[in-house]
Amino acid sequence: MAIEVRAHIAGTVWRIEKRSGDAVRAGDAVIILESMKMEVPVEAPANGKIAAISVTEGQTVDAGSVVATIV
Predict the structure, then answer these.
(1) Which end of the chain, N or C, is less surrounded by CB atoms within 10 Å?
(2) What is the pLDDT of residue 1?
(3) Residues 35-69 as b or e (16 or more Cβ within 10 Å = b)
C-alpha cells in the first residue's frame, strides 16, 4: 500500500533529502521546504522505501501537495 507524503505548509522545495529507492524511517526528512525564510522538513509518516519523488528543487508547493510516495 502506497503512503503519500504531503507538504504541511506552502513553500518552495529547497532541498530533496531522499531519492527513489532510499529506505526511510518514520520521522526522516524527505524534503526540506523554505517558507518565510525558514527551513521546514517534510517528514516520512511511516517506515518504508521511497517509490517516487513528485517535486523538483525550486518548485513551489501548496499545503497538502503530495511531494513523495512511500511503499
Answers:
(1) N
(2) 84
(3) beeeebbbbbeeebebeebbbeeeeebeeebebbb
